[in-house]
């Protein structure tokens, strides 16, 4: 999963290393003792022998490309010795600038959200992604996946559902989630290497989604639970034989108009949540 996103990441990383090589005016043999490895890395080519593009012994060498400002300062470090020492500066204690500094965050975020949106809700990430969309009241009002089919509901045109779902994706994630996505990424991978990035990327996405779940004050979540409550109430009433009779007599009472009135009133309340959502969104408040 997310394999194409990872491939684009490695290509971008290789290009970033190539750019630093050019800026410092270096040849391949100035960087690593094996110039062919430099060629492979800058092209973003990884294989079963180098599954994470850069092997453990190459990090310190390549990181000097991002720590040095010019050719002379790079050559002074004599990095071609077998085990060059990592500098004691703050930047030298990890490889964050080299590994993550090249990322186009908007592109990565949009690609991740698009892939998530195409997952089936039977999958863990697909189900969690769908749950985050409940944060948007207009979509929460048409979510029936967790309600048995005999519960009160109205027909929703598939095209309308698809349109509202896309709006929910844009509202919940693309408009409000980018900074949280980046923050979660750094919490997960800062100070780490490409091995962790490759092996734990799906875990990172899951952690982002967990953080993007609706909070207990979410208008969407209130609308969703409100709909569940009125639907279950109607279903419960309709399942009881006793409620069909009044005044302990045998005269059958038709409760359908009452049920309908109760449910329609509930629908009005759910629509009110949607209106409040629009008003808060106009004020750019993520509630």
Strand segment tally: 0
Strand content: under 5%
How many H/I helical runs? 14
Spans of at least 5 consecutive residues with low confidence = none
- Average residue-wise pLDDT: 85
Structural class: mainly alpha
Q: What is the helix content? A: 55-70%
Give the end-to-end Cα distance, rounded to a whole number of Å.
31 Å
Main β-sheet, in a few words? none
What's this, in brief?
By secondary structure, this protein is an all-alpha fold.
Topology diagram in text:
Elements (H helix, E strand, L loop, with lengths): L2 H21 L4 H4 L3 H8 L16 H9 L3 H6 L19 H5 L4 H13 L6 H9 L4 H4 L17 H17 L3 H12 L4 H18 L7 H21 L16 H27 L5
Structure description:
- The chain has helices spanning 3-23, 28-31, 35-42, 59-67, 71-76, 96-100, 105-117, 124-132, 137-140, 158-174, 178-189, 194-211, 219-239, 256-282.
- It has 287 residues and is mainly alpha-helical.
- It is elongated and about 90 Å long.
Task: List its traits.
14 helices; mainly alpha; 287 residues
């Amino acid at each position: 999963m997310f394999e194409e996103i990872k491939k684009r990441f490695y290509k971008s990383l290789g290009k970033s290393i190539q750019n630093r090589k050019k800026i410092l005016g270096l040849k391949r043999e100035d960087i690593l003792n094996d110039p062919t490895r430099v060629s492979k890395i800058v092209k973003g080519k990884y294989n079963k022998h180098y599954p994470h593009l850069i092997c453990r012994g190459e990090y310190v060498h390549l990181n000097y490309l991002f720590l040095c400002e010019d050719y002379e300062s790079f050559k002074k470090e004599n990095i071609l010795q077998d085990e060059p020492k990592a500098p004691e500066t703050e930047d030298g204690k990890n490889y964050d600038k080299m590994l993550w500094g090249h990322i186009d965050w908007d592109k990565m975020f949009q690609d991740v959200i698009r892939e998530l949106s195409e997952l089936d809700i039977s999958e863990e990430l697909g189900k969690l992604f769908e749950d985050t969309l409940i944060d948007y009241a207009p979509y929460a009002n048409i979510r029936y996946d967790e309600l048995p089919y005999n519960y009160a509901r109205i027909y929703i045109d598939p095209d309308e559902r698809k349109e509202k779902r896309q709006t929910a994706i844009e509202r919940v994630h693309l408009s409000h989630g980018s900074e949280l996505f980046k923050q979660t990424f750094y919490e997960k991978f800062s100070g780490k290497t490409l091995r962790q990035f490759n092996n734990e990327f799906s875990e990172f996405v899951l952690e982002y989604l967990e953080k993007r779940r609706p909070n207990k004050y979410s208008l969407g979540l209130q609308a969703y639970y409100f709909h569940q409550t009125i639907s279950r109430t109607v279903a419960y009433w309709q399942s009881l034989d006793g409620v069909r009779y009044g005044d302990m007599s045998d005269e059958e009472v038709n409760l359908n108009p009452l049920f309908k009135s109760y449910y329609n009133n509930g629908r009005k309340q759910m629509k009110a949540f949607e209106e409040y959502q629009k008003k808060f969104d106009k004020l750019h408040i993520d509630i």
